[in-house]
Amino acid sequence: MDRKDNLVKYTIGCTTRPYESITFSEACDHISAAGYSDVAVFANAGKNPVRSDSTRKEITETSKAAANAGLTPSAVMGSVRHLNEGLEVCLDDYKRLIDNVAALGATWLLDCGTSNVEHYSAYFELMRRAAPHADQAGVNIALKPHGGISLTVHDLVKADREVSHSGFGICFDPGNIIYYTKGELRPESDIGEIAPKVTTVIIKDCAVQNGEPDVMVTPGEGLVDFERVLNGLVAEGFNGPLYVECVAGSKLNEINANVESTLKFVKRLLA
């Protein structure tokens, strides 16, 4: 297999997080101009357009904005709500979120778990009951390391084992492993353990200075050894999508340049 053929199987998208201060439509235009094929829907201008309570109009406008830019809206950042109100209330809300992700035409629902220890058991039960609904809707839930229930690689492996359903997997975010442990843990050391569970990847780096972590770093310029991480995943058969989440830069031209260079960086590592 030559380099070109090898890249064909990987979808490399970009989240709208680098462009969170502007509209979703504007973000899509910049992501497309940088050469990406897919967009992951995060919050823009203070609001995620795809939520459990999104209107049909919001979903349609989001789909249209992505299509107008030539992008596939293949992933959505979501969240669990109402766990403190009981499992049934939370499950109904999460199913509505899944349905809206499906209505958009997205395949992946990225989830950040919960940081409330008292809700851990309820979260696992929620996912056990939500995963079949997601499966039927053509949506895959992917738990992202975000502290709390998904702080470490071992926590992610446990979550996958607890839910044990094809509609639920792991979104590996190496930068967050460093960020939420303030550099005490590294994403490379346990890549072999987590790799078989990984369905999606977030391309995010992290720097730590004076004990303070920072993910607003262009991938390749922080602590993450992306070559080791990606090689470890690919060695275990990973062929899912990858989404760039963060880059450095405060001005639009800086962000654009870093978003574009990150695509080249990831392609080079996967070639």
What is the count of distinct domains?
Answer: 1
The CATH class assignment is Alpha Beta
Strand order of the largest sheet: 1-2-3-4-5-6-7-10
Number of contiguous helices: 10
The fourth-level CATH homologous superfamily is Divalent-metal-dependent TIM barrel enzymes
- By DSSP, the count of extended strands is 10
Tell me the β content. Answer: 15-25%
User: What's the architecture, going by CATH?
Assistant: Alpha-Beta Barrel
Shape estimate: globular
List SSEs in N-to-C order: HEHEHEHEHEHEHHEEEHEH
Q: What is the rounded Rg? A: 18 Å
CATH fold-type name:
TIM Barrel
Low-pLDDT ranges: 1-5
Describe this structure in words.
The chain has helices spanning 3-8, 24-33, 56-68, 87-104, 120-137, 153-163, 174-180, 191-194, 226-235, 252-270, and strands at residues 12-15, 38-41, 72-77, 108-111, 140-143, 168-172, 198-203, 207-209, 212-214, 242-244. The chain is an alpha/beta fold. The protein has a single domain, classed as TIM Barrel (Alpha-Beta Barrel). Helix 4 packs parallel to helix 5 (120-137). Mean pLDDT is 95; it is low at 1-5.
Short description:
The protein has 271 residues and is an alpha/beta fold. The protein has helices at residues 3-8, 24-33, 56-68, 87-104, 120-137, 153-163, 174-180, 191-194, 226-235, 252-270, and strands at residues 12-15, 38-41, 72-77, 108-111, 140-143, 168-172, 198-203, 207-209, 212-214, 242-244. The protein is globular.
